[in-house]
Amino acid sequence: MAQPTLTFPRPVFAKLSPHPFLLRSLCPQSESDPAGRTNGRAPREARSINIHTSSLSHAHGSAVIRTGDTTVICGVRAEVLPVASIPQFRPRAAFEEETETSKRAELKNYDLLVPNIELATGCAPQFLPGVPPTALAQTLSTRVYSLLHGSGMVDVEDLRIWKRQKKEGEMEVDEDGEEEREEQELVGYWVLYVDLLFVSFDGNPFDAAWTAVVAALKDTKLPVARWDTEREAVVCSRESRPLKVRGLPVACSAAVFLEKEYGEPGEGRHWILLDPDRLEETLCREVITMVVDCSSGETRIRAIEKQGGTVVGRELLRGFAGVAEQRWKEVSKAMQ
Amino acid sequence: MADRRRINGPPGATIPPIYEDASDKSVVTRQPPRSRPANAIRQTYLKTGVTPSASGSAYLEVEMAGKPGVSGLKLSCTVHGPRSLPRSSLFSPHIILSTHVKFAPFATKQRRGYLRDPTERDLGSHLEAALRGAIIADRWPKSGVDIIVSIIEGDQDRETSRQQGDEAWDMMNTLSGCITVASAALADAGIDCVDTVAGGVAALVRDDADNGKPKIVIDPVPSEHDKIEAACCVAYLPTRDEITNLWFKGDMPDDDMATYMELVQQGIQASKHANRVLVQCIGETVG
Amino acid sequence: MPATREPEADLSVLPKADGSARYSYAGYTVTGSVNGPIEAQRRDEHAYEAHVDVIVRPAAGVGGTRERHLETTLQSSLTQLILVKNFPRSLIQIVLQVESAPENDYVNTKLVQASLNFAIIPALLQTAVLALLSAAVPMRATATSAIVAVVSQDGASELVADPSPREVEAAQSVHVLAFTSQDELLLAESEGDFTVKEWDDVYDTAKRICCQSGATKGESIEMVLDEKGDNGPDMRQFLRSTLETKVVADLYWK
């Protein structure tokens, strides 16, 4: 006699007991159903990425990223920061050599890159508006900010606004013979407000957000700006020039799923799930993000972030570089 | 005081770019005058289910005037609920709507702040009024539903440097879009409504080309006209022939009731056009 | 130069907290307090384990997004160390107050807000572990942490343990690693521009700082001497001796 069994449709099962649901999917009982994640992907399979740029007309650069059910919009907006409104502005003296370090410090000290992530758009049931940014939103903003500065994608030289004028009257040759050159004076900077808006959230927000930032920056065109002596202000012409963006760092994240939900760490098997979705993210503690850039031909790592567990050690991290490289190829292909 | 939960920009104020031809009237490329008939709305694209984790969601795009294929208004709406009210709230015999309308920082000509400003709150309360008349609220006692509209791109033409009138005309178009998109998202969430509510805008405009004679057009684009005298935004239930929200603004002689009635009537017409798009979109999802 | 100074720590410095510690090294001084297990707020309550709440307060001003990020990082690491399953439905609260940092937090008379301060993570983690030990919170393992920078000099890159703020600024890449007392990699944060090979070297250096134990110390010292470099102190031995000193002091009456 058949025992009466209680059966649920998949979504109900997923909601009631998510951990056994995912575990069962990863190690199936019979030969017939293949092992895989609940979203139908293999453990090392990321969602394909779809990038669409220049769709916003008010932003200077924009990108819409869709990977699976995660959709994020990034708008880059440039505004002028006159030197006069920088407290204690210190122009670089002629004898000071400009180095990569000093350029980065300049970018950072004057806050020329302002990224912010908005999650409270109802993009998932846990993110409702009317509350201040959550710890997740703040952490994501900080990580994007840090990586923007750390990766040196934007050169401060590209954001400087100069006042150029010919020296008049003094035609006699100076000792240093520099009078023929135009006189340059730094009058301001472009400040790039990089705003990210999540339309739909289904896990792995950092990878999607970072890809959107990179795509939007590559799409950014700044107006040609000059100093107007009559108006004593920076004015722009309708012409624009693309912002120079160095390199193409791509973020690749994975989460570690443990067999024992409440067991001691190190017990049982584990799976490394690339590009986790919302369900997987809630079940995994240990996460790893690696940002790589292979645009120079050689794989350079730009950032590593690994926390929340002890499964990923040296060997796994080393191996993960290869996974990240693969992801870089996918994303760079989508960027074109 | 600086917001310590966000990354703040430079402490000194930054200025949006000033274009050298902005004050030079002759250079301003004039928007081509309205080419579509006075009783036609712009191409509208509507899609439901853009946010799978929400109970219901929808995305709306309205084509930019004069530039086919380029979209003007872009709205995304998510609906969460119906769900139980928090324990602390009082008993309610019907569902409590909370509407939230927010512009993205990059949605308009001027960069928007992160906190809601009075215009956004105003749009939110108009939207709530429009939807309250459509939802069968007493089917869900002690529950609440959140309706969130994110304005990804506002209905403002970047090249238009003429500041005619104020922002209100754009706000009306935005509101009518908000109503339509929220209605689609509510239907996607499966929340019972008496009818699909859609927004429509009609305006009394005065064009130099018509020797300054006022005329009524639907779905007006401010940059296409020389002057907008008055406008109204209507939220309308077609099968019931009921208006759930009416927002009228402008300058009209007080004895001219006929023009006033005509304006509202045209608003209803615009709403009916939008409703057709709405019904078609929902039909596609169901079918 | 502060970087070569030995780390210093005092345990149970705050009389009213369940446990506390003051730790100072490489120019950073951090005081941490631990209270717990205490009753959790409803929204933090977890049916199977204790909620670990970390609060980081900067030396100047109020916390911003950067502190939230540090808190998230520390919280996920400390949850791994504490036997959280022993205390379901409760809260363990860790407050870390930065007292001094080698570099002023103000640039242009304005607080540096968002940039991730890597160099402070080891000090915060170390203080948290000491304070947890002082509060006698059951833990699976202790942890030690180190920061290593890759500085390029005349074309050759060199590893610098406990770099100064100036070195961090000029470094090619900066790495923070933390190991548990079972020699497992608990936390890895890196930033800059580096290769897998460089990261591997950094891993070795950091592991030497974090994981050499008293027993093998003689050997380790030789290794350090071999490389003719200052490879930082023995963090695990330091942790041990600090606690031994404390226990001896507490059992003085016997």
Architecture overview:
The complex is a heterotrimer of chains A (336), B (287) and C (254). Chain A has 336 residues and is of the alpha+beta class. Chain A is 25% helix and 31% strand. In chain A, strands 1, 2, 3, 4, 5 and 6 form a six-stranded mixed beta sheet that branches. In chain A, strands 10-9-11-12 form a four-stranded antiparallel beta sheet. In chain A, a hairpin with a 7-residue loop joins β1 and β2 (61-67). In chain A, α1 (10-16) packs across α2 (18-26). The model of chain A is unreliable at 171-175 (pLDDT under 50). Chain B is of the alpha+beta class and 287 residues long. Residues 158-162 of chain B have low confidence and may be disordered. With 254 residues, chain C is α+β, with helices and mostly antiparallel strands. Chain C has a five-stranded mixed beta sheet. Chain C is globular. The model of chain C is unreliable at 215-230 (pLDDT under 50). Classes of the chains: A alpha+beta (336), B alpha+beta (287), C alpha+beta (254). The interface between A and B is large, with 60 and 50 residues. β8 of chain A pairs parallel with β1 (18-19) of chain B. Chain B: Keywords: Cytoplasm, Exosome, Nucleus, RNA-binding, rRNA processing. Chain B: This is 3' exoribonuclease family, domain 1-domain-containing protein.
User: How many helices of chain B in DSSP terms?
Assistant: 3
Question: N-to-C SSE series of chain A?
Answer: HHEEEHEHEEHEEEEHEEH
Q: Give the tally of structural domains of chain B.
A: 1
| Helix and strand pattern of chain B | EEEEEHEHEEEEH
Name the poorly predicted regions of chain A. Answer: 171-175
Multimeric state: heterotrimer
> What is the radius of gyration of chain B computed over CA atoms, rounded to a whole number of angstroms?
20 Å
Global mean pLDDT of chain B: 86
CATH class of chain B reads: Alpha Beta
Low-confidence parts of chain B = 158-162
Class derived from helix and strand content of chain A:
alpha+beta
CATH superfamily caption of the domain at 49-169 and 180-242 in chain A: GHMP Kinase, N-terminal domain
Query: Which fold name is given in CATH as the topology of chain B?
Result: Ribosomal Protein S5, domain 2
Strand order of the largest sheet of chain B: 2-3-4-6-5
| Number of E-type strands of chain B | 10
CATH fold field value of the domain at 49-169 and 180-242 in chain A: Ribosomal Protein S5, domain 2
The major sheet of chain B is characterized as:
5 strands, mixed
CATH level-two architecture of the domain at 49-169 and 180-242 in chain A:
2-Layer Sandwich
Strand-pairing-aware structural class of chain B: alpha+beta
Strand proportion of chain B: 25-35%
Keywords (chain B): Cytoplasm, Exosome, Nucleus, RNA-binding, rRNA processing
Subcellular location (chain B): Cytoplasm; Nucleus
Domain Exoribonuclease phosphorolytic (chain B): 41-191
Main location (chain B): cytoplasm
